[in-house]
Amino acid sequence: MGNVILIGFMGSGKTTVGLKLSYRLRKPVIDTDKEIEREEKRSISDIFATDGEAYFRDRETAYLRKLLENAGNQIISVGGGLPLREENRELLRELGQVFYLNARAETIYERLKHDTTRPLLQGPDPQTKIRQLISERDAFYKAAADVVVNVDGKDFEQILCEIEKNVK
Ligand code: S3P
Question: Mapping DSSP to helix (H, G, I), strand (E, B) and coil, where does residue 56 land?
């Protein structure tokens, strides 16, 4: 299918890197969160609040299946929790080459400490939650990835170069 797929924790830069990469590689970009919000005509926070996380996770899998029918030669950035399902990791593998934007918990916390759009981080102690989720998820991200890109301390230019030189 020849897609370039970006995975990683919330705040690791997938959406921004996807947009910049789209411009550089001259390929269209899509973001699973944005597409699901568009289809559902409501925000991720509303989906979580009204129908719960499990509903959202099913929407992610359904959306990946839809991509497999029609997405080729695109940049696809996916929600931070999407690669946790084994079924989704298989679908990602079929869709293309997977890049894991790997960031340390401290980097993520600095970027997201004022964020209100991620329902999973709205509890009393987001810093601990970020650390806990990253340690639970890292192995799944690595299992899904063809290439791991460490993003800490790097600017977009460096990250984009690293991805570009590894794109097949
Ligand atoms: C989530 C990440 C979010 C969004 C939802 C759940 C997660 O996407 O899908 O809030 O479980 O990590 P981003 O990674 O684009 O923030």
Answer: helix
Q: What is the pTM of this model?
A: 0.97
* pLDDT tens figures, 14-29: 999 999 999 999 999 9
Q: Is 81 in the pocket of ligand 1 (CB under 6 A)?
A: yes
57, two tokens: 């996770």
Angle at 142 between CA 138 and CA 143, to 5 degrees: 115
8 lines ligand 1 (CB under 6 A): no
Q: How far is the CA of 78 from the centre of ligand 1 (A)?
A: 8
Probe target for ligand 1 pocket from 7, 9, 33, with the most ligand atoms within 8 Å of CB: 33
93's tokens? 């593998």
